[in-house]
Design goal:
This protein is mainly β. The chain has 2 domains: 9-168, Immunoglobulin-like, CATH 2.60.40; 173-304, Sandwich (Immunoglobulin-like). 6% of the residues lie in helices and 44% in strands. The chain contains 3 helices and 23 strands. It has helices at residues 9-17, 113-116, 290-294, and strands spanning 28-37, 43-52, 55-56, 71-75, 79-86, 98-99, 128-134, 141-146, 162-168, 173-177, 182-186, 190-198, 203-209, 215-220, 224-227, 231-238, 244-248, 253-254, 261-262, 264-267, 272-278, 283-287, 298-304. The longest helix has 9 residues, at 9-17. Residues 1-23 have low confidence and may be disordered.
């Protein structure tokens, strides 16, 4: 059995010392996840435990491994200690967690030595590996995480080992649109977060309830729901190999980082796009890329009174 634990606390302490005072409410997250084999020869992540600021929030997650994997919700200023355990049990095969967007040292890259030039950074069967992340100012957004070690140096995200990290801004507010007007709204006003992964032939969905924070894996091309006038946030992450063209019929939203209103968005592999709308009417969402549309990459967003 091979166990790995990398400290690097000096890096974390320095980062925390130089964060502005506005980060004083930052939370320390202690996360323990496993990677497991599920039906159909697929692989999936499962949340074993998660404490945030000393509070156990594990019940927010599914009690079984899911595709997509758990969505980890953080805020600028937080720190994360994440341990991955290998429950797949294929001899000499590591599993890892490689994250985008947040800050970490090379020892928390979650890749093989052939890539990072330092060492293999994953968990062997029945073993574990621990990563340290700093959620520094400027990292707000939604970012993918995925395996980078199982079977090849590209990993096994194609078998289901992927998930997302949502980093909420330290300000506690996001930009939203009702189709005509642009406004800043509190993150706490968001009634639903929908994380949609764009594969090569289908959307995969994860829903987060804004009140209970409960997460639900929705499966393929899922039905999304909201009440009229709810603030709903969409998190789009392209996990496939094709260029995508996302559209939500009849809606306009703010292109992040601008004051421009758009009604469609091109998203390339491992790119992401996040927007918040005020739900006004039911609509279809779809990938209008010609070949993806022919393959049926579409679903419904139902808005009720």
């Amino acid at each position: 059995m091979k166990h790995k634990y990398k400290h690097g606390y000096f890096t974390l302490i320095l980062a925390m010392l130089f964060w502005p005072l506005s980060q004083s409410n930052a939370a320390e997250h202690i996360i323990d996840m496993t990677a497991e084999k599920i039906d159909g020869g697929l692989l999936a992540y499962k949340m074993q435990s998660h404490t945030a600021g000393g509070v156990d929030i594990t019940t927010r997650y599914s009690s079984v491994a899911t595709i997509p994997g758990p969505t980890i919700v953080l805020a600028e200023g937080d720190t994360v200690t994440l341990t991955i355990r290998n429950g797949i049990n294929v001899t000499d095969q590591q599993v890892s967690v490689h994250v985008h967007g947040v800050h970490y040292t090379i020892l928390s890259d979650g890749t093989l030595k052939v890539i990072n030039k330092i060492e293999d950074e994953g968990a062997y069967p029945s073993g574990f590996y621990t990563y340290l992340w700093t959620i520094a100012p400027g990292t707000a957004g939604t970012w993918p995480y995925h395996d980078h070690n199982f079977e090849t140096h590209n990993g096994s995200e194609v078998k289901g080992l992927f998930g997302a990290v949502i980093v909420n801004p330290a300000s506690g507010s996001v930009t939203a649109s009702d189709g005509r007007n642009i406004a800043s709204v509190p993150v706490s006003s968001i009634k639903k977060d929908y994380v949609l992964y764009l594969g090569d032939d289908a959307f995969w969905g994860m829903a987060i309830d804004g009140t209970s924070k409960q997460q639900t894996a929705l499966g393929v091309n899922p039905l999304l729901t909201a009440n009229r006038n709810d603030n709903v946030r969409f998190h789009l992450i392209a996990m496939g190999t094709y260029l995508n063209q996302f559209k939500l019929n009849g809606y306009q939203w703010v292109d992040p980082g601008t004051a421009n209103m758009i009604n469609t968005k091109a998203i390339g592999p491992l790119e992401k796009h996040v927007f918040t709308i005020n739900a006004s009417h039911s609509a279809a969402y779809m990938n209008t890329n010609f070949s993806r549309k022919l393959m049926g990459m579409t679903g419904n967003f139902n808005v009720t009174h």
